[in-house]
Structures are given as structure tokens and as C-alpha cells.
Amino acid sequence: MSVRQTIKRHFKIISILQKKAMSFEELQDEIAIDPDSVEEKLLTSQRTFQRDILDIASIYGIEIASDKSRNVYFIRDDVEDESTQRLRENYDLLNAIRLSKGMGNSLIFEQRKALGTKHMSGLLFAVQNSWVVEFEYLKFWDGSLSKRRVHPISLKEARNRWYLIAKDEKDEIIKNFSLDRIENLALTQVHFTPISYDVQAEFKDSFGIINGTEEEPVEVVLSFTPREGRYVESLPLHSSQKLVEKNEKEIRFSYFIRPTYDFRMEILSYGDQVKVLQPKTLQQEIKKQLENSIDQY
């Protein structure tokens, strides 16, 4: 069996057992109704499945345990980390794309600009080896290109875009560069002293990619209509989101977050389906922005 088949089988087992506990026979039945799994010959023996359990624990850090009283297998304390989950989801998407070829409109994508992912492997290598990188950067406001020489720190995803976090040699300021606006990337092989900069901590209280501003994190309380509230409950706006109140008239959430420009724009995108309850300063800013919008008409 090929390495590809083994990886696909691992991901399939994880995906199925995340839904509910199953016996080995039920797991095989579930695999058997998936056309892609049948095509890839992912059905396997009990012995191979036991080896898969050990490999999944070792490679992905996900423990599959058994309940002998019910004769089922289950994922113990689902601890799949973010990178493993994303890898598995992207693998599922790749399989869906492959299966949809030649099948008309069975898989529809949004029209969007490329994400600049072609730069990721080179930038990641530069981050891990502390190499200075050079590139041309397309400015949003005037469409011009500027030459940059930076010390890469990390790659970060925000709002469906990927960004390079790096210190700009021009002014020694740590900045964010969208990968889709980077052109003519060059790895210089010039080493720099690694920078002490905790990306996770710096962005923990931020909504998107904006940080390093004067805004301090504050408690924000938003009241959504029940319809929008249920959507936000299923897809939280921020990791700090907490449910405060839920009834037939509204759903309230609290956040500990910096009320930066991108967060204010997100609030405005919900129109009359949301109301800022606190802090009053943010409430007034949103109100003023709405009044300015009305004045445009």
C-alpha cells in the first residue's frame, strides 16, 4: 500500500471517529460508502487498523481508545492541533477537487485573487534559518511597488489571507506583509540575529492582522438578533468570545479584544443585526461611522 493511501486512510479514520464512536465493522462500512475511499482501496484488516491506531497517536498526537464493553473505538479527548486539523481539511478538499473534475458544476469556488502561497516554502525556510529576505511589495493605496529588505519572524493567517511578520530594515519596525502582494522574492542567505517577538502573544487580543496600535484590549459586549447570533455562535468572531445571554429576542456575546479598525469594520458588516452594548466609546464610534455612511446618500 502506498504512502498516499496510508495517509488518506489515517485522515479518514480520524474524520469518521470524530463524529461518533464505532466498532471496527461499522468503521469499515462507513469507509465502504465513500466512493473516493473505495477507489483508493482504503478498506483494511483488523490487524492493519491496530497498527493505524499506533501510527495516528505517534504522528498526529490523537489517541484512539477502545470501549470493550460496547465494542467501539473512539477518539480520547480530541486533541488534534490546529496544524493537523488544517492539513486533514486541505487533504479532504484536494480529494473533492480531484473527484469533481469533469463533473460540471458539482464543486463551485469563489472567484478570488491567489493567496501568494507560492512564497510560503521559501519564507518558512528563511524564518527557520534566520535569513534576510528581499522582495518588491505592492502598495494598496497607490498600486506602486516598493523594495523591501526584512528579517522574517513568522507566517500568520488572518481573514483568509496569509501574512509575513517581519522586521523592516528600513526603520527597524515589525510589520505585516500580505503574501499575495509580494513579488520577486529573494532569499539572501545573509543571517540575522533572531528576534525575540512572541507572535501568539502579540496578536492574542487582536481581531485580524492589525496590532501594535494604541488601542488596549477591552471588554466588548455585542447583542445580535437571534438569526445572526446563531451564526456567530457557530463561527466565533474571536477566540475570546463568550456567550452572555440567549433568548428569543437577542443573543449576547462578550469579547476581550482590541477595538481596532478591522474589528469595527466587521461589526459594521452586520448592519442592523448587531448592536454594541459596551464600551460606550466603541458604541459611539460605530454610531458615528453609520451616520457618515448615511451622509454619503
Automatic annotation (TrEMBL):
Pfam families: WCX (PF25583), WYL (PF13280). Transmembrane segments: none annotated. PROSITE patterns: WYL. Residues 122-186 form the WYL domain. Residues 216-291 form the WCX domain. This is WYL domain-containing protein. It comes from Christiangramia fulva.
